[in-house]
Amino acid sequence: MTLSPTPRSTIKRGKNRAATDRSELYAVLDAGLVCHLAVVVDGAPVVLPTGYGRDGDTLYLHGSTGARTLREAAAGLPVSVAVTLLDGIVYARSVFDHSMNYRCAVVHGVATPVTDPAAKSHGLRVLVEHLSPGSWDYARQPTPRELAATAVLALDLAEASVKIRTGPPSDEESSPVWAGVLPVVTTYGTPEPCPLLAEGTAVPEHVSGRR
Amino acid sequence: MTLSPTPRSTIKRGKNRAATDRSELYAVLDAGLVCHLAVVVDGAPVVLPTGYGRDGDTLYLHGSTGARTLREAAAGLPVSVAVTLLDGIVYARSVFDHSMNYRCAVVHGVATPVTDPAAKSHGLRVLVEHLSPGSWDYARQPTPRELAATAVLALDLAEASVKIRTGPPSDEESSPVWAGVLPVVTTYGTPEPCPLLAEGTAVPEHVSGRR
Lengths: 211, 211
Known about the structure:
2 copies of one chain form a homodimer. Chain A has 6 helices and 11 strands. The mean pLDDT of chain A is 90. In chain A, strands 1, 2, 3, 4, 5, 6, 7, 8, 9 and 10 form a 10-stranded antiparallel beta sheet that branches. Chain A has helices at residues 22-31, 68-74, 117-131, 135-138, 144-148, 205-208; strands spanning 18-19, 34-41, 44-55, 58-64, 78-91, 99-110, 112-113, 150-156, 159-165, 180-188, 192-193. By secondary structure, chain A is of the alpha+beta class. In chain A, strand 3 and strand 4 form a beta hairpin. Chain A has one domain (7-183): Pnp Oxidase, Chain A (Roll), CATH 2.30.110. The interface between A and B is large, with 93 and 95 residues. Strand 10 (180-188) of chain A pairs antiparallel with strand 11 of chain B.
């Protein structure tokens, strides 16, 4: 299935970097941890980082029911969501051709609040399992009060674009200057136990084995 | 000097995570590499990742003069810019208290185009030195044609907020469940030379020594 069905999700600049397969959209969304959510408040854009999770062609977002950004989105305002993974710094022979290697997905749409209790619980499960796979079944699940305090939004992935840059710098001029890519690598460190833990509490495999 | 002088840059949710010193804003902006720029196009928000650089209380943004997002910003439209650094996944005893450790700066304002040649060259230098410190003096500097093809915008850092979460999960309930933080660590890998380089071209210190 292909992407870019609408004018605003059709990439115009750097077409050679546009990915056109839906599987590439899924791959970028599944590899990221934080998205940037933009909404319009009083005519001005507001962008904020937030967690998310994907289930099929639905992107779930969440936050406190008191957060203005999410309240605006819940009212049916259009949103834009970007997930960006930085893979490297591209050093070219010219400063003009310096660049970044990255994978970026941008989704446009109208986010709708998920209020049905079962659907909301499912959305939260998707969000939690994206942030911390294995936690939903391992940790204590939400109480009705906690569920009520959390706003869950669903955004359809119908209108989305993906842009990916890989490889060496694009300038080919002859020069004694070094050019290439400095990879940016994101990894997980050693788990840091909560100071309140009972001594000897083992780190579970879904945390210690996370890659 | 303190931050948050306006209602929209005053953090309302999670006040305990709000940083109030301007030096913390600088630290987050200087530590990030990519920002997310939001503008309003046809009444809808559009968010995109882009490079940036800071000089004092000015944030520089740039892009192709053909990119619609930057053209809109150059017309004097309000923008919102977020720089987010993810530091860890917070595993709590309850899924409700799962969280992330992060540092995030959000700037609101009206971006103005930098057109004076000397000022534009300065802005580009700030941008390049943020992306790749040492490259401006090492690589070939922009030709007049390259300068003309690049749009540089300046955004004043007057209206900004910083939110930082650190430390263990916040729930204190007694539970045999492991809780703690899985650090997210971003590092640079081994430089990958461009295949077109003359054999034996040494990796310069500003690349190999980057931390």
